[in-house]
């Protein structure tokens, strides 16, 4: 834990580098991470007898221009 008073500065730097690397990996492979999280959500929903519904989507996005006011 980085909040431990006895932590060595080098250990702290290594922990920060490890966390940064993990976050960068997740960021670079967001599709894979999303698929994994969705599968986990499906498993959880199955165990709790819950149905996952897709959010309502709009076929065409209409952009409202502020200059029209």
Helical/strand content category: mainly alpha
**How many runs of DSSP E, i.e. beta strands?**
0
Order of helices and strands: HH
Largest sheet geometry: none
Tally of helical runs = 2
What gap, in angstroms, lies between the N and C termini?
53 Å
Radius of gyration: 21 Å
How does the overall form come out from the CA principal axes?
A: flat
Low-confidence stretches: none
Estimate the mean pLDDT confidence: 81
Instruction: Bin the helical content.
Output: 55-70%
Q: What percentage of amino acids are in beta strands? A: under 5%
Helix and strand topology:
Blueprint: H1 9-28, H2 30-47
Question: Your description of this structure?
Answer:
This protein has 69 residues and is mainly alpha-helical. It has a domain at 9-51. 55% of the residues lie in helices and 0% in strands. It is built from two helices and no strands. It has helices at residues 9-28, 30-47. The longest helix is centred in the first third of the chain and has 20 residues, at 9-28. The protein is flat and about 55 Å long. The termini are far apart. The model has no long low-confidence stretch (mean pLDDT 81).
Give a nutshell description of this structure.
This protein is an all-alpha fold and 69 residues long. Helix content is 55%, strand content 0%. The chain has 2 helices and no strands.
């Amino acid at each position: 834990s980085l909040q431990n008073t006895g932590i060595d500065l080098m250990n702290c730097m290594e922990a920060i580098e490890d966390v940064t690397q993990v976050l960068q990996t997740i960021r670079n492979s967001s599709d894979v991470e999303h698929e994994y999280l969705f599968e986990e959500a499906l498993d959880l929903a199955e165990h709790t007898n819950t149905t996952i519904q897709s959010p309502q989507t709009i076929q065409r996005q209409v952009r409202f221009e502020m200059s029209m006011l």
